[in-house]
Amino acid sequence: MNKWELARYILDAKKSVDSVLYLCSHAEELSMIDLRSEVNEIKRKFYVNGCIVLDKCFPKNKKDICKDTTIKSIYYERDKNYAHKDDDYKLKEYATMDEIADEMKSQLQCIVDTCKDFLPVELTLDYVAFDSKFFRIASGITKEREEQILNFKHPNRGKQSVVPDEYTRTFKVFNDTEDIRNISSNEKNQYATILSVGICMEETMQHLQDGVVKCNVLYGLNMWVSINQSKLNEIKKLRELGMIDNCDMPYIPKNKKDEKRVIQILKKEGFLNE
Predict the structure, then answer these.
(1) Burial 35-51 (b: 16+ CB within 10 A, else e)
(2) pLDDT at res. 157
(3) Buried b vs exposed e over 94-133: b needs ≥16 C-beta within 10 Å?
(4) Among the listed residues 80, 89, 20, 12, the one whose alpha carbon sits nearest the alpha carbon of residue 52
(5) Helix axis angle, 201-219 to 132-139, nearest 10°
(6) CA distances to 147, 236, 248 from 153, in Å
(7) Among 8, 198, 210, 261, which is disulfide-ready with 204 (CB 3.0 to 4.6 Å)?
(8) H helices within 181-255, ranges in order?
(9) Do 65 and 25 touch, CB atoms closer than 8 A?
(10) DSSP per-residue string spanning 7-22
(11) Which pLDDT does position 224 carry in this prediction?
């Protein structure tokens, strides 16, 4: 695997942390589902993806890298609990979901540090408290509602912007970095990647990072997109003020009086000039 193929599994592990971070603050809205089983599955994916990177970077040096206690703990979870169900496996107890997230962050950072010579220097770990499935359940987002939201945000969505003629080309979609194994060098120019946005800013960041990794794997590039934390904080503040909802849909004033109220709030919070 090249560096960006490896980065894909780092990102997948990072998104497992994102999922736990989301559960930390939304467990109450999701109390109707079996959170213990969900967290167990999230952790399974995390340790499997983390160990893929370690195994590929150090195929013959597992014993050496396991001298690091954090790396050893990662392999312990993968080998004794998720790859197998060993009788001598000891389940670790956690007081809170935050403890799980903090441990996973520490473990993933250790993987990145250990494998830094094999990973892209552009790669960053940009955590966002988000999980696409849990977000939709907690927010009551149906397929119909999601279509309404996306069509409102993107009025030209689904409309053909280019009229096919002799100068246009049709490409196959490169859906997964693992598909590169089945594409020859001569066939790569027949494929294209899709960069998509999500239902909210957090999902958009996850989608864009996934998309640029696929671009880099397919075309041998070194693109990267990272979070502008100050802008994300502004979006979170607007949500707190009720100016946008959790899908980043704008609040529409009901009348002139309500419009003045909204303007006053935005001015007071520094989003509009006095």
Answers:
(1) eeebbeebbbebbbbbb
(2) 86
(3) eeebeebbbbbbebbebbbebbeebbbeebeebbbbbbbe
(4) 12
(5) 160
(6) 10, 18, 9
(7) 198
(8) 201-219, 229-241
(9) no
(10) HHHHHHHHHHHHHHHH
(11) 97
Nearest to 123 by CA among 233, 13, 236: 13
Q: Please state the length of the chain.
A: 274
Beta pairing partners, 263? none
State which residues of the chain have pLDDT below 50: none
Note the pLDDT of residue 274: 73
Which residue do the tokens 């520094």 mark? 270
- The contacts found for 81-88 with CB under 8 angstroms, 24 or more apart, are 81/47, 82/43, 82/44, 82/47, 82/48, 83/48
Query: How far apart, in Å, do the first and last CA atoms of the chain sit?
Result: 55
Backbone dihedral region of 131: left (phi > 0), alpha (psi from -120 to 50 degrees) or beta? beta
Question: Is the overall model pTM greater than 0.70, yes or no?
Answer: yes
Residue spans per domain, the chain: 3-159
State how far the alpha carbon of 110 is from the alpha carbons of 59, 81, 125, in Å: 17, 20, 12
Write out the two tokens for 139: 């927010």
CA 197, distance to chain mean position in Å, is 12
Helix (H) or strand (E) holding 173: strand 172-173
Long-range contacts of 250-253 (CB under 8 A, 24+ apart): none
- In angstroms, the CA 98 to CA 21 distance is 7
- Determine the pLDDT at residue 158: 81
Backbone phi and psi for residue 266, each to the nearest 5 degrees, phi listed first: -65, -35
**Locate tokens 């999922």: which residue?**
19
